[in-house]
Amino acid sequence: MSNDRLRYALTELADEALPVDLRDRTLRSSRRLGIRRTVAGSAATLILLGGSAGALLANPRQHTDPPPIAATLPNPRQLPGQAWPVPEAGGVETENPTFGRLFYLPPSTEGNDGPMASVPLSSWRPGTAPDELLDLPVQTALNTVAVSPDGQRVVWVEQEGLLFRSDLADPARIVVASSIDGSCWVPAWLPDSRRLGIALAVDSKQQQSGDSREYRTRFLELPRAKLSGDAPREGCFPLWSANGRVLAYTGFADGRAFVTEPANGTRRTVPGLGAGEKHETWGLTSIAPDGRMVALHVRQRETTASDDPGPIVVLDTRTGAQIDLPLDGRPLRQAYFQADGTLVARVSAGSATVLVLIGADGRKLDEVREPVELNGLRVISVTR
Predict the structure, then answer these.
(1) 208 forms bridges with which residues in the sheet?
(2) Cα distance between the two ends of the chain
(3) Could you please report the per-residue DSSP string of 225-241?
(4) Region 57-73: what's the mean pLDDT?
(5) 118 or 357: which carries more pLDDT confidence?
(6) Quick check: helix, strand or coil at residue 347?
(7) Which residue from 75, 10, 254 is spatially nearest to 2, judged by alpha carbons?
(8) What is the reported pTM?
(9) What is the SS3 assignment for the chain?
(10) Residue 382: closest CA among 40, 62, 20, 26
């Protein structure tokens, strides 16, 4: 199918605004760990797409995380810590930084993985009561759901590569695209909350498995489903920084993490991860607004079970060193950067969970205990 025909078809599909009952669909099984079998390619070609993003952004768990790590799991990096990097000139500053709005899903499909199963997407802002927003298909939601940076919309990829959108103020589910990669280059919002980075199958009629199809990375503007940009799919689990200048992603099958700056065409590998190194990563969760730090799961190569992502850490993307966080010795469970440069760190505190707000300069600013009903859930996003 030509690009023009594909664009026309997707636009028609968006115009139809097709509501879909998610409970009436048979859910495909997760292929998150299947990315290891994907044929690796050069990451340099991704910068071609990134350059288009730089032009589009004149002024981007979000894939989901693996389940929270138990408090007793040791940190495998055994690397010297590093102080919080000094913010670069011109960084975002906020006079009164606060916690944003957090979104939650269950940590796994265990006990709720039938073909018709669904799970609630919940949200909470400190100072208010938790709220259940809508039900999502259990297996696809745990891998592909992405909440927009403004906290107003959610997208996810369902069976047969259908991309769904829902406005959180409206329960309708709307199909906006088809033949979307839901196992590797999962949808990633750009900071304007209108555009998504997606991977679109070259031939929508291919009958191959999702991991073996050929995909091209594109930008999809909502709600009209307007497409732009075009480059080969490279890497997995992309993250856009809040300033729209930095794109991070993992390698296909080597456990590396990359940081690109599309505007100037640069790309670097986060030191200390991947082939030839002691540690690897298979899951990025959040990136600092300027790309200087990234929160990700790390584990020792060849010594950890294939389904164990390893504990969450925050690394300096230039040195690979682990950042020392002011957590008072409490185990880090999850970490999400906010657009103002602050970090929301989720820590274990006995049987409870606590959110710690860390300033853009690395100082602890505040902390709050989560409601007990959220303890067993997993944060997938922190928005405005």
Answers:
(1) none
(2) 39
(3) TEEEEEEE--SEEEEE-
(4) 37
(5) 357
(6) strand
(7) 10
(8) 0.79
(9) CCHHHHHHHHHHHHHHCCECCHHHCCCCCCCHHHHHHCCCCCHHHHHHHHHHHHHHCCCCCCCCCCCCCCCCCCCCCCCCEECCCCCCCCCCCCCCCCCCEEEEECCCCCCCCCCCCEEEEEEECCCCCCEEEEEEEHHHHHHHCEECCCCCEEEEEEHHHEEEEEECCCCCCEEEECCECCCCCCCEECCCCCEEEEEEECCCCCCCCCCCCCEEEEEEECCCCEEEEEEECCCEEEEECCCCCCEEEECCCCCCEEEEEHHHCEEEECCCECCCCCEEEEEEEEECCCCCEEEEEEEECCCCCCCCCCCEEEEECCCCCEECCCCCCCCEEEEEECCCCCEEEEEEECCEEEEEEECCCCCEEEEEECCHHHCCCEEEEEEC
(10) 62
Residue 154 in this model has a pLDDT that exceeds 90: yes
Residue 50, H or E segment: helix 46-56
Provide the CA 337 distance to its chain's centre, in angstroms: 12
With 70 as the cut, is the pLDDT of residue 98 above it? Answer: yes
Say how far apart CA 194 and CA 49 lie, in whole Å: 17
- On whether the CB atoms of residues 383 and 151 are closer than 8 A, the answer is yes
In Å, how far from its chain's centre is CA 131?
22
| Average pLDDT score over the chain | 78
Please write the tens of the pLDDT for every residue from 347-368: 999 999 999 999 999 999 999 9
